[in-house]
Each structure stands twice: as C-alpha cells, then as structure tokens.
Amino acid sequence: MNAASAFWDGLTRGWGVDQPAVLALLVLALLPLVASAFRRRGIASTRLIPDDPLSVAVGAGLRLAGAVAIIALVLGLAGLHRREQSVEREGTGAHLVLLLDRSSSMDNSFADRAPTGDQESKSAAAKRLLAEFVARRPHDRIAVAAFSTSPMPVLPLTDHHEVVDAAIDAIDRPGLAFTDVGRGLALAFSYFADDTDESSRAVLLVSDGAALIDRRVQEALRDAAARTPVHLYWLFLRSRGAQGIYDVPASGDDSAQANPERHLHLFLQSLGVPYRAFEATSPQAVAQAITEIDRQETRPIRYVERIPRRDLVRPAFFVAALATALLLAAKLAERQLRPAGRGAKEGTDAIDLRRAA
C-alpha cells in the first residue's frame, strides 16, 4: 500500500484536483475509441476501396479529439491545478534586521528643525532609501524592529518583501521622545536566535542619536554577539552642527552622558563582531552609505522560492472547447454518399415518365 501511494505521489507530483471523485468519469474517454458519431455505410469488400492514408489519419485524429475533449472536460470539472511548491535556489544576499529609531528627533530635517518646503525629515529620507535598498535585494530575508522609549518588534525574518515594504512605509509616523537603543539592539539580535541557516546575518541600525546603555543590557548584548555572530552597521543620521561619532573632545567632559553617540560607537566596536559606522548629514549621504552596505552584503545564499498554486480549470475547458469545435466542424462537413446504380436507375425512370407524358 505504501509503495502504491509513493508511486501515485511521484506520478502526480505538483498536480492536484479539488474533486477527485469526478476523475472516475475519465473512463468515458474510451467511448470515442470504440464508437463513432459519424455515419457508417457497409460495403461488400474492403478490396473495392483503394488505400487512403489521409482518410485513416483524419479518422484517427477525430477519435483522438473526442477522447481529448472528454478528458479535458472531466479535468476541468474536477478542478485541475498545480499545487503550491517551494523551490530551493541559490543567489546572493543575507538575513537582515532593519533596526529603526522612532524617536521624535527623527521627524526633524538634517538641519534639526521641522522640515519645510521640499525638505525631507530624516525618517522620510530613511524610508525612501531603505525601500529602494530592499527592492535591490530580492533574495534577502528581512526583519524589521524599532525602538524609542522601548523596543518594538515589527516584523520577523521573512522573504515576503511586500510586507517588509509596508513595515518600512510606517517608519515616518510621528515618533516618541526617548531613545532606548540598547534594548533595541538586544531585540535585533534576538531575531537570529532561531535562525539555523548558515547565510550571512546583518543588523542595520538607523538612528540619529544614542543614549546610555544600562550595564546589564551591555552584558546581554555581548553575550548575544558571542552566541550569534552578525555583521553590524550603524547608519548615523547626524544633524548639522551636532557632534560626530568620531569627534574626540579636545578638552572637557568625554563621558557617555556628554557624548552618547561617540560612546555607543566605541561600545559597538568592542562587541567583537564585524562593525562599520556611517555618518550621514544629508539624504545624499544616506544614499551613499546604503549603497555601500548593499555592496558589502552580497554573499552566496540559499533561498526558497514559493511558487503559488495555479488553477488550470479554464485552460482545461478551453482545450475541451477546441476539441469539441473540431468534432462539430467535421460533423457539419459530413456528406451522405449515394450508390451509383441507384442514382442511374432513378434518372432513367424519370426520363421514361416524361416521355410517357
């Protein structure tokens, strides 16, 4: 029984019907092979008829058309379809987590004021450029997370990029006041906890600032980085006039409270994972940074392409209609032949009647 089931599954791999019981009607496809809808006339001997390969071929073709019409009609009634399939392919890409800052400062322009005229807010520029970034990476699995007063999981790792686009489209909504980047990073690292794929993993942090990270959160991040190696990128959307992450104060206070962005940069460097930071002070600089990140994350990746179910009911009915139309045309072209002797006798009788009249 198992062998028969395995044979049938192998035979119908990728194909299916909604109403299997209707397939019992396929036996009717034998009717055109044993019967005919065309007129038949007996003759005394087949030796009286010369060989006619064309007629034999036409006859066989019409029988085949009848069988095809019945088979296609039955398959259409049964709901023929191609099943949904998953095909493993190879390409280039990575598993990415987009970690987005949703603090209220992201609603300002790079001039650190409310955008006016044709100016873009930092969140709007990030949304536009990240959407283009995702569109260039069709094979990536992408997750989205956000942080402000607290971390906010938005979307787990997925290869459905239309959902990713919707999540990115929401990042320019009005933000909150604070920036808890530490717990946001912990959330981003947690997305890879159950990811057993050997593909490249990366976290892209998009933020215009930083804040103090609690020591316990720092230890949790170090532990997560040791257990789940990732490539870490920080796209720092720096407001004009603000202190940069590479700026070392010439004198004065260089504490984490006074320079949180610089100390976040130093902390990320100490995690022991490949890390790179980009400072951007304009939408053009953001675009250049994202292009560079796109170039960096181009390693080989195995991905699964899902091929959706495809209904074949209409094509089946179309084939049945064509075959039926062919049979109908052949039937309408059929002519009844009269024996030559009978026609001659009827003609002679008609002449005799006219003469008698």
UniProtKB/TrEMBL annotation:
PROSITE patterns: VWFA
Pfam families: VWA_2
Upper taxonomic lineage: Bacteria, Pseudomonadati, Pseudomonadota, Alphaproteobacteria, Hyphomicrobiales
Keyword vocabulary terms for this entry: Cell membrane, Membrane, Transmembrane, Transmembrane helix
Protein name: MxaC protein
UniProt key word Cell membrane: yes
Transmembrane segments: 20-39, 60-80
Segments forming domain VWFA: 95-293
Domain of life: Bacteria
